């Protein structure tokens, strides 16, 4: 069984959106295109803080068929890679479940199989998770309140790349920030397999209190679209991508 | 797409409750919670008057993965690699949610730092020799333990042995490490990749040793490699152990057997030295003991003699 490249958008934010479309509905549209939307809500160290503004986090990931998690700043590195891996696993399980339905006829999922058979199916999922190719578009909220969290975000992204590159399958990343200058999002790092060498990429911060999460997600979806279009046009220039 | 697991509420199991399996209908009486981590929660249970450990998670796939590892270990006959697997099943909660669980042998004992502090340094070598042997067997089977850390190790009693209790991070060699903890992670310290190879476990084992000297850990600082070197220099007194830990951290040793051989040699050398020392000591003691009794007898005799003279003269 072969899967094509898995696509994910990873949104890292610290509050709720206040401009443009509803991000949850945009996430639903993105999910329709086979791209998973994962969201990480990042909090200050104080434990008293209620994740009130972060309720949206769960909502976006829910309609984006992805995984969400709310974390304190210090735990970010581990969370970023855990969320990415978990989402990868869930997507692959979805794929496997579909196959199972075709084989077994009735609407059955892995969880409905007896434990022994489940183990065998799980080996297949594990294998796929290790060997499939992965593309992650990281979308970082750089509104004013995020300023002191950005160094940690950068560290977490380097760590993500270390984790994902340890797999047998290929991994590619690109990083965008939002809001951008006069546009919803701004590219910081173009598609690359290694984020190890990124340094102070979040240099230009947007001022003001605007957090246009919805429009940013929409734009991110278009970036994925553009890429596949380009791929079709000049597939000779991107042999490594085409192979996937 | 399967996102069901995400909407599942957290597991809420109380002590005194009985967990009945959906498939095998076995009943487990919950005594208490033993601990909970990223993947799931482990409970101490009683099944047919025997204490067992039951691990439950809302992520069915994680439980299934771990069961696969435990099953693979089962095939390695005559060797206790990790706790033995007893049962795999599903639990249906009162509100209809399904949680997967597995049941394994309950290993009781002390954690490593406590045990070493109570019983002395020399035990560290004994335990590590046995552990390195187990690790080599695991590596020979094509696995890497992955999430090797103090919390995942227990010193079992009678015989005292260092054993691992959580196999959640166990990964096939050549793949990406499934689960890790920053302090014990080679990539976090910028000393290598996060790919599963035997050296990954040996790095983590070196950190387990360091953790005995630094119970609260330490941060990596600006130059992680230098930080590690300094911490090793400061904490470990034994020159040989210092060298070994350094080699494990640097990846100069990449086989668990090498660790075992190194430690065995060290212990043998120490034994010879202590035997020599004891020989010398016992010789000294002999001289002293041969001297002491006469002194005592003389002094007792002289005192009683004085008493006798005193009595006969003045009474």
Automatic annotation (TrEMBL), chain A:
Protein name per the record: VWA domain-containing protein
Species name: Gracilibacillus oryzae
Pfam families given in the database record: VWA (PF00092)
InterPro entries cross-referenced by the UniProt entry: VWF_A (IPR002035), vWFA_dom_sf (IPR036465)
Start and end residues of each VWFA domain: 1-92, 135-244
TrEMBL record, chain B:
Keywords in alphabetical order: Kinase, Transferase
GO MF term list: ATP binding; protein kinase activity
Coiled coil location: none
Location of the Protein kinase domain: 28-295
SUPFAM superfamilies membership: Protein kinase-like (PK-like)
InterPro entries: Kinase-like_dom_sf, Prot_kinase_dom
Protein name, entry field: Protein kinase
Organism encoding this protein: Gracilibacillus oryzae
